[in-house]
């Protein structure tokens, strides 16, 4: 039966494919397709993993039987029996084999997929005791996965594709080509999302998350349709269901009828045609009708993204979120050499165009690693994140600063500091930058010049620009956090997502004043939050006087199209009217 789920639109476009449900605790399980010739080897890996766990249980059972009847814990004996039964369950084994042979999933993916299928059957059981056995199923799955990791070497994943092989069933349904896959999870951390950068998935859906959560931002940078905040999606959709993601409307259609499928197929083709049309603007300079030159920069997460930025026609990188180099490493931080090489790759990848590297911004919704997430911080967005974290760990910060300084010897680079708010933090930061230079001098290591900028993303910073303008060469407005902190709306919380409003008069005032003050002082200013890539806001930002926008490479051409159609001079008085209105959103439509 067709039904739809409404969430938040985060990455544009339409994706149509089969659902792959991933329990969030297991997203670090590799997902790739194997070749038909590897089927037996993959089944063997599962078999070896399972046998290792069975052996371990047998060993435990033996040691229990050697205990006296008093010490032998009865619950443990019963539990081990249940685990053994589950490990020998035909449905588990048979299902895993089917995912491998028919779908060519790698062993770990096949195991977690089948666990989801059986887990749902447990959920539906009336008997409470049986329902609770789902936890045992999850435990044995974890154990087998661990045993596989410790045991045999996995087959090398062939090149990732966004599709899986057609199954017998698909052929019966009339599918003749590979079928795209849509990932559905309760939650995905930014680090999980990074794993999927080279992934097989054609779209993402999560139950939780706000429009500018970092998970949504990474989804957008992947330039594939995604919906977050879809509440119960991971419970309502079943493994392998057909789903449509309408990334523009934030809607997920499950089990679509042929008519709906045809309609979205049409929309999908329209989107592709539009992209084709936009690509003609690639080499057109971004100049408004009245001759204002506009700088369109890229936001990147990894050095390799520089290539995408160049291909999209970016004239530089306005925000390299360096924290992605620090995530998903079980807390082991990248050393100076590793970081230096990464920044250098980004700088060289931009072929002489400037790269703005932001110092690490972890904390809040960007934990270093899921396992290190400390639940004691009830309000992580207000806690030890970004520059606060860096200043709390000077050795870590100095390592990063030295690496960036060294990389700056290889091309034009800027340093950007996130989340500053106090004059004392600014002075501490500059003193550590001087210290890092002195350390490199002492070691006789070459480094390059850096322009130093600050992010304006806390209202207090926007209201005390004088001190920022005194110290910094340029400012970059982080509207994602600026909105979060101005309106007291957690950017990751979908339950208050409707209140997260870039057009709130207070937000507009802070953005406009920052732009105006920078211009009055002759300092560079750009916007690098999601507002910069939102085409519905391009004219307003131009009208406020903004001339530098930094966004995901995939958004550059659409924003350029807006720029080419705009008359910045005429937009200025209109922008003033919008800002003066009680309901700026209403006024926006009247241009
Ligand atoms: C912002 O806050 O607008 C920004 C660009 O930084 P991040 O999204 O990484 O917090
Ligand atoms: Mg920010």
**What fraction of the residues are assigned to beta strands by DSSP?**
5-15%
Number of strands: 17
Approximate helicity band? 40-55%
Q: How many domains?
A: 3
Q: What is the average of the pLDDT values?
A: 88
CATH homologous superfamily (4th level) name of the largest domain: Phosphoenolpyruvate-binding domains
CATH fold-level name of the largest domain: TIM Barrel
Low-confidence stretches: 152-177
Small molecules bound in the structure, each named once: phosphoenolpyruvate, magnesium ion
**Number of separate helices:** 24
Shape: globular
Task: Determine the oligomeric state from the structure.
Answer: single chain
Q: Determine Rg (CA atoms, Å).
A: 26 Å
- Give me the secondary-structure category: alpha/beta
> Could you give a short account of the major beta sheet?
9 strands, mixed
So what's the CATH class of the largest domain? Alpha Beta
- What is the CATH architecture term of the largest domain? Alpha-Beta Barrel
